């Protein structure tokens, strides 16, 4: 279950940022996330190609649905006015919910397809690395909270 969350986080990040990473990679910038994942868990060239194929295939459809969801959200915001139409609001909200549900379903399918590419050893390594990163993130957040508390106490003393 933990692995599903990790892969899900990776894929959400990939889904959101893949166009930017692809642009960077083609412009000689940093390697894309699939390459970073390959270095992290030792993906073969075939595995990388398969994951890129999955992401590319699903990315287009998810991207179109995201644009549709954004448009529906704008339509919904446009319905917020003094002389509102409750039926129009409910219809648009329902359609937005359907589109958002489809995005979630496609994202889960993409996660499952990518998960099927990893070997057990790669899944274990990814799990270990993500757990490490999560601990580091938690430590940083705790340090930030402590710094904010100290700053708050310093301002109160003045």
TrEMBL record:
Region span, Disordered: 120-158
Biased composition (Basic and acidic residues): 120-134
Keywords recorded for this protein, A-Z: Coiled coil, Signal
Secretion signal, residue range per the UniProt entry: 1-22
Coiled coil location: 55-82
Gene3D superfamilies to which the protein is assigned, alphabetical: 1.20.120.1490
Compositional bias (Low complexity): 135-158
Protein name: Regulator of replication initiation timing
Organism of derivation: Marinobacter oulmenensis
């Amino acid at each position: 279950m933990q692995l599903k969350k990790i892969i899900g986080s990776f894929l959400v990040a990939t889904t959101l940022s893949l166009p930017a990473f692809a642009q960077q990679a083609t412009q000689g910038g940093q390697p894309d996330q699939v390459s970073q994942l390959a270095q992290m868990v030792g993906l073969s060239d075939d595995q990388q190609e398969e994951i890129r194929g999955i992401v590319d295939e699903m990315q287009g459809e998810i991207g179109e649905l995201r644009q549709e969801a954004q448009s529906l959200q704008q339509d919904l915001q446009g319905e917020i006015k003094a002389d509102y139409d409750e039926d129009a609001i409910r219809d648009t909200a329902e359609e937005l919910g359907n589109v958002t549900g489809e995005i979630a379903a496609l994202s889960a399918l993409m996660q499952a397809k990518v998960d099927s590419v990893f070997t057990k050893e790669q899944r274990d390594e990814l799990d270990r690395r993500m757990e490490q990163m999560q601990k580091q993130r938690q430590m940083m957040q705790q340090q930030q909270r402590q710094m904010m508390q100290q700053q708050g106490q310093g301002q109160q003393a003045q």
